[in-house]
Amino acid sequence: MLDQPQNDTVRRLAKLRATFESGLDGRFLGIKDDFDRASSATKKGQATDFLSKIKNAAHKLSGSGGIHGFPAVSGMAKSLEQACCRALEHEEQAIPAAAMAEIKDCIDALAGTARPASTAFGESISFDDIMHRLKSIPGDEKTVLLIDDDLELAASLKAQLSVFGFEMVWEEDPERLADSLASLHPAAVIMDISFPGDEDRGLVVINELRERGSIDCPVLFLSNRSDIEARLGAYRAGCSDYLVKPFDISDLVSSLVQRVAARTQEPYRVLIIDDDPDVSEYHQVLLEQAGFNVLSLNDPMSALKAVDAFLPDGILLDVHMPGCSGIEVAAVLRQDQNLLHVPIIFLTSDTDQVRKLSAVLSGGDEFLIKNSAPDYIVATLKTRSQRSRELKRKIERIGQSENHFRSLAQKVADAIVSIDQEGRIVQWNQGATGIFGYREDEILGISIQTLFPDRIGRTQIDAMFDADVQEKNQGCLFSAFQTGAMTKNRGEIAVELSVNHWNDDEQWHCTAIIRDVTERNKTEQELRKNKERFRTMAEQSSDWIWESDIAHKFTYISEGLSKSIGIPRDKFLGRKRGALTGVGVSKESLNNHLDDLRRHLPFRNFEYGIETDSGAMVYLSSSGAPQFSDDGAFEGYIGTGRNVTQLKLSQAELQNKIDTATKELSAKSKKLERALKQEKRLNQAQRQFVSMASHEFRTPLAIIDSTAQRLTSLTRKFGEDQELDRKIAKIRNAVDRLTTLIESTLASENIDSGKTEFNAQTCGLRSLVIDICERQQEITDTHTIIFDLDQLPVRITADNGKLEQIFSNLLSNAVKYSPDADRIEVRGWQERGQAVISVTDHGLGIPDGEQPRIFERFFRASSSLGIVGTGIGLYLVKEFVALHSGSLDMDSKEGVGTTIAVRLPMNLLAGHSMEPMAI
Question: What confidence score (pLDDT) does residue 147 get?
Answer without folding.
Answer: 92
